[in-house]
Design goal:
By secondary structure, the chain is mainly α. It has one helix spanning 2-44. The termini are far apart. The relative contact order is 0.05.
Length: 65
């Protein structure tokens, strides 16, 4: 019985460590994506990402391609 309890405690510790590692990886990904978005914002400045699209005089709704 004692070995079983040791096994359960070891398993619980491994589960806690895995959860902590997952959390740290998720936090690193969040920070990394935020940095990437900030860099993208700096690169484009305050300009719009894409230019304005004109409808070419065909009206508001056009036929789908």
């Amino acid at each position: 019985m004692f070995e079983y309890e040791l096994h359960r405690m070891n398993h619980a510790q491994l589960v806690r460590e895995a959860a902590a590692q997952r959390l740290s990886h998720e936090a690193a990904e969040t920070v990394g994506s935020a940095r990437g978005l900030r860099r993208l914002g700096r690169r484009s400045g305050n300009k719009e990402a894409e230019g304005r699209v004109s409808d070419g005089g065909r009206g508001r709704f056009v036929r789908a391609a």
